[in-house]
Amino acid sequence: MARRSFAVRLVSFAVSFPITVIVILFAISNREMVPMRLWPLPTEIEAPLYILVLVCVGLGFLLGGGIAWAGELGHKTRAARAERRAEDLERELSVMRIREEELRARAGLKGEPAVPLLEAGRS
Predict the structure, then answer these.
(1) What is the three-class DSSP state of 100?
(2) Angle subtended at Cα 68 by Cα 62 and Cα 74, rounded to the nearest 5 degrees
(3) Residue at 7 is within a domain
(4) How many Å apart are CA 106 and CA 123, to the nearest integer?
(5) Angle between helices 49-107 and 6-29 (to 10 degrees)
(6) What is the DSSP string of 1-69?
(7) How many CB atoms are closer than 10 A to CB 49?
(8) Which domain range does residue 48 map to?
(9) Residue 121 falls inside a structural domain
C-alpha cells in the first residue's frame, strides 16, 4: 500500500482533531444521568446523556453508511456487467480481425483493402 502524502495527513488531522475536541467537550459537559425508556418494554435504563447521544449518532452513522452502500450495489453490478460485455466484445473483435486476415490471405489479397472491413475501433 502506498504511503499517504504529508498533505493528506495534514488535512486528515485538521478535520479529525476539531471533531475529537468537540466530542470530548460534549462528553465532559453532559455527564448527568438521564433515564431512557423504550416504549413497548417496561424497563428503564439510566445512563449519562453523552453516552446516549453518542450511541445514537454512531448508530445513525452506521445506518446511513449501510443505506449508501446498498444504494451503490446496483451501480456496481451494472458497471461490472458492462465491463464484462466490453471485454467479450473486444475478444470478438480480435477474433473477427484474425478471420478477416485469414480470408484475405486465402483470397490472395495483399496489403490494405480499398474499403476496410473491420476498421472501426482499431487502434
Answers:
(1) helix
(2) 140
(3) no
(4) 25
(5) 150
(6) -PPPPHHHHHHHHHHHHHHHHHHHHHHHH--SEEEEE-TTS--EEEEEHHHHHHHHHHHHHHHHHHHHH
(7) 16
(8) 31-107
(9) no
The tens digit of pLDDT for each residue in 98-111 reads 998 888 888 876 65
Report yes or no on 83 lying in a domain. yes
98 CA to centre of own chain = 38
- Asked if 90 and 82 touch (Cβ cutoff 8 Å), the reply is no
Output 56 or 119, whichever has higher pLDDT: 56
Q: How far apart are CA 68 and CA 59, in angstroms?
A: 14
The whole-number pLDDT of residue 39 equals 86
Number of domains in the chain: 1
Q: What is the pLDDT of residues 28-52, one digit of tens each?
A: 999 999 998 888 888 999 999 999 9
Does residue 39 lie within any of the structural domains? yes
pLDDT of the residue at 1: 47
